[in-house]
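Check these lines:
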Amino acid sequence: MLAIDLSGKRALVAGVGDDKGFGFAIAKALGECGATVSIATWPPLLGMLKLALDKGRLDEALTLRDGTKLKFAAIYPFDADFDRLADVPAEIAQHRRYRELGDFTVAGLAAAVAAAGGVDIVVHSLANAPEVKNPLVQTSRAGYLAAVSTSAYSHVALVRELGPIMPRGGSFLTLSYLAAERVVGGYGGGMSSAKAALESDARVLAYEAGRAWGHRVNVISAGPYASRAARAIGPVEQIVEYARRASPLTTPITADEVAATAAFLSSPLASGITGTVVYVDKGFSTMGVHLPA
């Protein structure tokens, strides 16, 4: 029987802020497969996450199939908006949630990971758009560029900084959404453009990282899911229900289904796959006109 074996592999999942989203589920799946897992968390969420871990509130969510509990090797502060500390505005650097964290930038994360021995698997599971509730036509230039910077360019920056410290044959994975290529009403603020850039960049990065270091770069396009981040957009439950009714498989996707796909794509079993968008959406992306389920 083929099994996903990540024993001896070091994994980093960037964008874990709670136990409800894809990032946490992916971290758990990688741990289930034997990887040593670290996470990187946005500073405004870091204190709450650490408190929840310390108080045991996430013990059930961290429990693996064998009854043991996943323990993160490290929890890094990480703000994907900044490449270097010199880029950080003073008001952010001096904010109470940032000022004691050291180097929380992309370069700082890479330095910390290198000091800890390196990494074999990197998962980019983060996005943000300050004007996500605005239609695209009403999105400001600043809001549009912020969405692309945080949600797409941050992946480029991670590959640039972490690629050289990965052993040859490493894996990068990022998470996208169908709005990269189809119109999804209400998914505004430049997020559709950011996801399109993310997918396009992944193809280029697959070529460049493959030639330079032998690494793979892939994308999961997940179906709609009612995570904390998705609820910030608006009525995500309506989008989930629409997708459920329109899909060939008429049950909503689960975080575990996305996580299992992530574990496969990060493993040696997927050594021939790179530059690819894999849809985990119950077939929703294949549909044109659907009949009532």
